[in-house]
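Final report, results section. Input specification for complex C-07:
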Amino acid sequence: MLRIEGLTKTYRTGDAALRGVDLTVGKGQVVGLIGPSGAGKSTLIRCVNRLVEPTAGKIYVGDTEITGLGRRELRRVRRRIGMIFQEYALVERLTVMENVLSGRLGYVGFWASWLRRFPEADIAKAFAVLDRVGLMDQVDKRADALSGGQRQRVGIARALMQDPDLLLVDEPTASLDPKTSRQVMRLLLEVCAERGFATIVNIHDVGLAQLFLPRIVGLRAGAIVYDGPAAGLTAEVLTRIYGEEDWTRTAARDDDEDDTAAALAIEAERRIVAGAA
Amino acid sequence: MSAGAATPAYPRRWSRPPLIPDARLRWAIVLGAILYLIVGTGTVDVNWARVSEGLVRGGRFLAGFLAPDFTSRWSDISTGMIESLTMTVTATVAGIALSVPFGLGAARNIAPAWLYVVCRAVIAFARTFQEIIIAIFFVAMFGFGPFAGFLTLSLSTIGFLGKLLADDIEEADPAQLEAVRATGASWWQVVAYAVSPQVMPRLVGLSLYRFDINFRESAVVGIVGAGGIGATLNTALDRYEYDSAAAILLLIIGIVMVCEYSSGFIRRRVQ
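Structure output:
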């Protein structure tokens, strides 16, 4: 579904954010992208819908090569790429419904969208999507009146409205508490499975990544240094991605008595997920 | 037992370090300033005869204020007032209508570089001259009357609103713009869905504020011949009709206060 070949991005300041990244994500596949801050995770997913212009390399979404597209074709491709953001990036002063309907902007004309006259099918779809993410009773609230978890659900609903083939998710849980993070990740994984999106999830939290994401790609200084199953994230691999640190608490399955309760909980849940898979 | 026994003797007084550390320099500057004030006052040539004459005139003006005369020049006053209000409303509407496109074009985060340069140049030009100077130009070009005033106020509204709107757009949250852009929205849709919700409350507030300013300026530009209540006021003063002038000033104060209160009320509602 998504094929990236030799993707390179050098910013005008001279910083090389990406150095020849190759990555393929198939239909229905969910990839967790981990790596230290500044490794190029955000740049990588923003190159896919060209919010950031790549310097070199090719990106195929389906059969379309997108790096050479003109503005009109680019907008057509962006309709097929849903995006979910770190700080939700909802338009704060608009209602939940308007935020969700904005996922259809690529499909309706300017005047229809400006006058909020969306096709009936779109409105029905918006209600269905809001029902799916559990926000049926918040439809007319302003986005800035919602809690963090609710906002991220609106963000997910907005992406679903696009009927995308590809989903780009940028740090979906970075501003959420641990419990809400898990709920949001679970919802995200469920909808990806239901609709067969090819998905890339940027994520800081290695524990959460191991828990929910079957395939992990590790990025360091703009290059891929690991691409494999979540179970393969050993202390040695984490050192390769992030650098030297004591990784035994998160990576190795040690039963040290001084292990924190949280680490144990993550550990236990991972085993259950691994067992179910 | 007391813990104070072990504490060393800390100083009990502290004062803020002076701006100029050297005490001699500090006093020299103070003395220099006083000396300059004395010498400076000495060089002002005051014509006391003229001052006393002015005081008498000022007294008559104050007396006029205490007995404002709305009736004897009422037809002039009402014509001027209607002209001023017409000028204010039309110039504010035209100014807002024109400042929105210029404001959008002058916001670096949504406009291409060439458009940015053009729109910023227009706004900078509109802001360069004080209203009275622009009014003198327009009176020279289009003759006496409220049309020159209308053009003056429209131009300065573009300068004022265009700049503040553009600055506000540039401070808008980029994540919201990015998110709407990522859905495949067109430029105008990004403006309608991500920019306008963020800047609209401020735009409404600034427009109401500008309405206030335009009314006050309409009285000023009248003095240089651009019509409106300012022209009436000028005539009244020229004829030494201080009671009529006082009536005009009271009306201006009243209308400005009405504008002030109603705009405050509306601004609270749109937040």
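The first strand of chain A starts at residue 2 and ends at 10. Chain A touches chain B through 30 residues (CB under 8 Å). This concludes the modelling results for the funded period.
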